[in-house]
Amino acid sequence: MPSASTRKHARTATVTDRPPAPEPSFAERARTLVHIGRIGSLSTLSRKQPGFPFGSVMPYGLDATGRPIFLISTMAMHTQNLQADPRASLLVTQPDASGDPLGASRVTLVGNAAKIPKPEIAEARRLYLERYANSKYWVDFEDFSFYRMDVLDVYYVGGFGVMGWVEASDYTQAQPDPLADSATAILEHMNADHKDALVLLARAFAGIESQEASMTAVDRLGFHVRLKTEEGMKGARIAFPREVRSTAETRKVLVEMVQQAREKLIGA
């Protein structure tokens, strides 16, 4: 049975009495973060110092259920550690995080990492090379092998006060957010060309008056804004009126929301 943190949408605290806007579940947010990430920190159990964790920078691929795929050499210490004990964890952090790193999203996958069976190597090779084309120069070296982590548990942190364990089954069944690959472009466009619209949206849908606004995150259910107000900096979550699944749908919904905000504020 899914844990309490994954049975419902995660929520973001607001500075008003309005009901919180829904957000993707922790499982979805974890899958999205691992999807957009490319490099993590792999911790294995040291052979040289038994019981101590050994950290390594680790590029990874992903299979259809979100299991990380590693291309590693027998000469590497982490490979030797895994051969002795498959228990490991992979920490992935928000790739575009700015400001305080403790306020950024991160996820830790805990599981067993073992060599991929021969019948499954071709698919693992394809998935890995999709992310790391330059790996073609060493992927077939005799000392390199593909390993895969079978995820046993997941811990997600979405920033200050937003954290919780995610069942492995919920993680593997979840899908990355449909805006995951286009979110950065949407943020850049809104913050460069539509700052006034964000101020308007925050006033109409979050009840916050601000002098400046920036969009800090976006997903299929809504977006986060960072607001400069007379009382200082504030954050808010604003829900979309309906779920979006593409950049075009996001643009259409935002245009509609701006029009609704204007009508709402004029009639207020």
Describe the structure.
By secondary structure, the chain is an alpha+beta fold. The chain has two domains: 163 residues, Electron Transport, Fmn-binding Protein, Chain A (Pnp Oxidase, Chain A, Roll), CATH 2.30.110.10; 85 residues, Alpha-Beta Barrel (Split barrel-like). Helix content is 31%, strand content 32%. It has eight helices and eleven strands. The strands form two sheets. Strands 1, 2, 3, 4, 5, 6, 7 and 8 form an eight-stranded antiparallel β-sheet that branches. Helix 6 packs across helix 7 and helix 7 crosses helix 8. It starts with a helix and ends with a helix. The N terminus is likely disordered.
How would you describe this structure in keywords?
268 residues, alpha+beta, Pnp Oxidase, Chain A, Split barrel-like, 2 domains, eight-stranded antiparallel β-sheet, three-stranded antiparallel β-sheet, 8 helices, 31% helix, elongated
What does this entry show, briefly?
By secondary structure, this protein is an alpha+beta fold.
Identify the CATH architecture of the largest domain: Roll
Overall structural class, as computed from helix and strand content, comes to alpha+beta
How many distinct folded domains? 2
Main beta sheet:
8 strands, antiparallel
Task: Give me the count of strands.
Answer: 11
Global outline:
elongated
Q: Report, as a whole number of angstroms, the end-to-end distance.
A: 46 Å
Percentage of residues in DSSP E strands: 25-35%
The CATH superfamily of the largest domain is known as: Electron Transport, Fmn-binding Protein, Chain A
Task: Outline the low-pLDDT stretches.
Answer: 1-16
Mean pLDDT: 90
Radius of gyration, rounded? 21 Å
SSE pattern: HHEEEEHEEHEEHHHEEEH
CATH topology-level fold name of the largest domain: Pnp Oxidase, Chain A
Number of helices: 8
Given this structure, which CATH class of the largest domain is correct? Answer: Mainly Beta
Helix content: 25-40%
